[in-house]
Model the fold of this input.
Amino acid sequence: MTIYQNLIAGEWVGSDATENINPSNTKEVVGLYANGSATDTKAAIAAAKAAFPAWSRSGIWERHVILKKAGDEIMARKDELGALLAREEGKTLPEAIGETIRASQIFEFFAGEALRLAGEIIPSVRPNIGVEITRDPLGVIGIITPWNFPIAIPAWKIAPALCYGNTVVFKPAELVPGCSWAIVDILHRAGLPKGVLNLVMGKGSVVGQAMLDSPDLAGITFTGSTGTGKRVAVASLEHNRKFQLEMGGKNPMVVLDDADLTVAVEAAANSGFFSTGQRCTASSRLIVTEGIHDKFVAALTEKLKTLVVDDAMKPTTHIGPVVDERQLKTDTDYIEIGKKEGAKLAFGGELVTRETPGFYLQPTLFTEATNQMRISREEIFGPVVSLIRVKDYDEALATANDTPFGLSAGIATTSLKHATHFKRNVEAGMVMVNLPTAGVDFHVPFGGRKGSSYGPREQGKYAAEFYTTVKTSYTLA
Done:
């Protein structure tokens, strides 16, 4: 079987490899992918540092053309790349193809942004002096991405980094190297100069640590667990480097008495259980007022009965497998914790067997939960949702905000008054009204508050805040 190698200084290198396993069929090896070392990481950082002066001064048309080519190829190969994503991560094929399309759109957007780079020319308060405000590339950017969005998250970090003239050292999650390798290969063939984009696949404890230890990274953008995010922050402070963190969530969806029941159930099911609940924006807390509580629980339970858990590639599948055995154990451990805490297991919670061996788990709904239970406070990152009964809107809002996280929040209501108040007062970076909390556009800012995020927002024009540094120049006329 072919070994998919690391890309360092424009060359494919590496022979030691790790198997990429299909969570829908653990007997299937998706591919063999290079297992990088600390030495490989240092070489990649050195290559990016050497390439930075020329790339940072490259023409905007060159950057535009390369990013546009990448976006076009990803779109042309959406079915192929979507199938790869579904096989290595376990996301259903329609979701995987949709994510691939989003990656293409991200590259298209930043191809356009490369032509829209702008600054300001303003007068000084002093006579005969002009002031020019511009943005310079930051430098060598370390990119560390998670396994749950194997193509979209690498895209929304790599595309702006290159657009604004930075060079990159990219470490994808160990579980999903395939999509990351494909993106890097596409960009490499699109014409990126040697060393501008470097890929080092491997263990976080090896490759990631070597990146954190390097004084030559000007910035690190990280998406992943809260614990690892804190380590990135501490290491970055030591080197006085810029860092951007997207971490955990325990996102609330409030359902008020006046909600459209069908809309509320569809939004809750999508938010909490689709993508196997493996989204940082998933609604793992449903906060439901008394008047609609019983009807909502009954309707949501009936909805969950219709959802098919099976191989991600099957057209009849609604929910694919959990990504791996370790995550599956985390999910089942929390299900046992919920039972012991006194929550009522209203649906699911069981492992299921299918034609092929995989990490299959029923969508799991706990009712009669409280906001103090661990299942309501700690991120599980699986298809496990706790439902909390509250008296009214005021209690619902207070419960929604009673969390150390603040990424996404949703409300189901037909009241303009409550929707408006919720948007203004919920402590989250993103708010959805009568929509799932998961699912965002590619051209607008993404990020949260409190323990969910740190640093400038990702995506859209706001990405420039992280990937560039502002320069103010004065000229005597």
User: Anything to note?
Assistant: The mean pLDDT is 97. The two ends are 66 Å apart (CA to CA). Residues 73 and 405 are 37 Å apart (CA to CA).
